[in-house]
């Protein structure tokens, strides 16, 4: 049911409605065409980003012919799920939403985060033969729990950013009800299937998207910090007004990834870590 406090959305012409479907279809077709050639340079960049945030153990990662993905199965799911959540928010024209999902949806999202942590702990314990673990870890479980966690994170983090950024944030929620959550989970299931089925052009495309998910989630978090540090909370009326803090957030993200990359490389050499 629409919120009475919100003005009715503007009506769009038939041509615009058609273009909403045609434009994404064209973008996907172009991306798949580019993915067919699998340019290694882009994967190399994505792998360097992944090196900063992910263990990249080959046995715990899905792979393209000749190389594992830039992120492990769990992180691939997490950052694809985050990107799917952000995509849903923008597709529903809620870029200024400031309210968290309602209580029933929040309860499910919290369960997603708990499930991600539980499966991660069980998977970590399995690295040590002498320590007990409840079940045998599997990459599909890592991918699914990561996806659910990413959906939860994006649905919680974005309203916090929005309520910090805009002069007049919207009273909309990031997810309105369980039905909408189910649609988002269906999109997540398609992404999981795309990775797990292993068709190289699709897996390549999703690997690149997961890399973009890293930049989007970390960049958004750093942009919120920049808003507070620069004392620019609740001043933006248009996206152009956020150009400075978004640029600072992007710069901070690149600096963090570079520092983590160098630190991990140094620790690996100094301590002889296996990964």
What does the model show?
- The chain has 275 residues and is mostly helical.
- It has a domain at 71-259.
- It is 68% helix and 4% strand.
- The chain contains eight helices and four strands.
- The strands form two sheets. A two-stranded antiparallel sheet has the order 1-2. Strands 3-4 form a two-stranded parallel ribbon.
- Helix 3 (73-91) crosses helix 7 (200-229), helix 5 packs across helix 6 and helix 6 (178-197) packs across helix 7.
- The longest helix has 30 residues, at 200-229.
- It is globular and about 55 Å long.
- 34% of the residues are buried.
- The mean pLDDT is 88.
Please summarize what this structure is:
The protein is mainly α and 275 residues long.
Uncertain ranges: none
Q: What's the tally of helices?
A: 8
Record field, number of beta strands: 4
Most strands sheet: 2 strands, antiparallel
Order of helices and strands: HHEEHEHHEHHH
Name the overall outline. Answer: globular
Beta-strand share of residues: under 5%
The rounded Rg comes to 20 Å
Nearest-integer average pLDDT: 88
Percentage of residues assigned to helices = 55-70%
The strand line-up of the biggest sheet is: 1-2
The class by helix and strand makeup works out as mainly alpha
How many angstroms separate the termini? 51 Å
What is the oligomer described by this structure?
A: single chain
């Amino acid at each position: 049911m629409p919120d009475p406090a919100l003005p009715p959305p503007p009506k769009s012409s038939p041509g615009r409605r058609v273009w909403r479907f045609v434009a994404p279809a064209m973008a996907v077709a172009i991306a798949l065409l580019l993915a067919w050639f699998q340019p290694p340079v882009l994967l190399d960049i994505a792998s360097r980003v992944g090196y900063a945030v992910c263990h990249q153990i080959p046995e715990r990662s899905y792979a393209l012919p000749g190389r594992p993905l830039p992120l492990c199965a769990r992180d691939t799911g997490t950052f694809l799920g985050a990107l799917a959540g952000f995509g849903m928010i923008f597709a529903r024209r809620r870029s200024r939403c400031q309210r968290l999902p309602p209580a029933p949806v929040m309860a499910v999202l919290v369960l997603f985060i708990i499930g991600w942590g539980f499966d991660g702990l069980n998977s970590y314990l399995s690295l040590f033969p002498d320590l007990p673990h409840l079940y045998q870890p599997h990459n599909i479980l890592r991918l699914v729990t990561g996806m659910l966690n990413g959906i939860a994170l994006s649905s919680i983090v974005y309203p916090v950013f929005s309520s910090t950024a805009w002069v007049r944030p919207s009273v909309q929620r990031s997810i309105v009800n369980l039905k909408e959550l189910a649609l988002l989970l269906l999109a997540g299931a398609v992404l999981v299937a795309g990775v797990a089925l292993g068709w190289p052009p699709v897996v390549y495309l999703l690997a690149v998207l997961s890399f973009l998910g890293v930049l989007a989630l970390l960049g958004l978090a750093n942009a919120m910090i920049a808003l507070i540090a620069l004392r620019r909370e609740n001043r933006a009326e248009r996206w152009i007004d956020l150009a400075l803090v978004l640029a600072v957030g992007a710069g901070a993200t690149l600096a963090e990834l570079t520092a983590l990359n160098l630190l991990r490389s140094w620790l690996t050499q100094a301590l002889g870590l296996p990964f």
